[in-house]
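User: My collaborator sent over this chain with a note saying "see what the structure looks like." That's all I know about it. Can you take a look?
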Amino acid sequence: MGADTFTPDVNGAATFTRNLAAGLARRGHEVHVMAPAQRGKVGTFTEEHEGVPLTVHRVYSWRWLPHPWLRFMLPWRVKANAERIVREVKPDAVHFQSHIVVGRGLATAAKRHGIQLIGTNHVMPENILQHVTVLPNAMLGWLASIQWGSARKWFSMADAVTTPTRRAAEFFEKGTGLDHVLAISCGIDTSFYTADFSPRTENVIAFLGRLDEEKYIHELLEAAAKLGDLDVRVEIIGGGEVRKQLEARARELGIAERVNFRGRVSDEVLRSTLTSASVFAMPSRAELQSIATMEALASGLPVVAADAMALPHLVHPGENGYLYQPGDIDEFAAHLRAVLTAPPAEFERLQRGALRTVEAHDIQRTLDIFEALYRGESVVDPDTEGELAR
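Assistant: Without extra context I'll predict from the sequence alone. Here is the result:
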């Protein structure tokens, strides 16, 4: 399995790779992960992830200085290491999580040795370019088209291509011109999360994710400022490049004392925070699935999210939460208010709707599908959106 971003990075692609690798290892598979080295720790190591040992091949990498955590590996180093690892390990299947760097080396090696190759896309070039270039916006579209062309080249080598949702698959097909892209949920282990149906004694809005511009977290702060009469508290879990700007915005809005920037926390603290919160907010406009939102749903939290990209696959208005039009702060605040002031029976109905939605995204189902793909079997998109189809 190859990834351009992997633990300890905190983002959807890194989390999915970790969860998939650990889940496969629990089923008795021998799993190797090729990923960037952290702080010069180069070589092959046995690392424990999600309670299971994985063999991780760490390739020399550099941090991209304009970004707080993004790292990159040199293509020729990746190519040489991919060939070496494939020769030594002799895998039955190779699965790359990004075509940016690591996918190129692993795809080439897998095809050279006749190994079943799976590719999963987690990114939109337009979002990546915001972090890796300082060129004018007028040039970003041109660079994005080049990246889409690159994605087509490398993903076309795969025996099967997947993305987390049908909307993400359609977006990818449009960008690359490829077809038959499978929509396979990233999945989460729902048994890790706990729902609490007891009455809430506080109005707590939770957010989990990177503090990056594409998440539009300032909209959450602006919506929370309109709920002063409810004495809301906002719990923001995650780190990122715009934290200082968000802290400044909270002060400008006069709600700094009610916004808790938690930074990165342990899994135990994360899960307890979700369990005890009242509502989860996800204002991002660039989610190809949103593992964080699935974690909230698995914790029995109603969700208020932006009606953008793949979030409507998870948030079904009136059933497990509400969607708001991106940028409409009044609508955002109104939906948060509706959840926070809902009578107990209505609040519990939304909670149970959240749990029903996430059932289709249990990682055991995801593992079954990827095992089939690794064996070269044909699969069809699972129905993870039954509520939407009604």
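A starting point for your reply to your collaborator: The chain has a mean pLDDT of 91.
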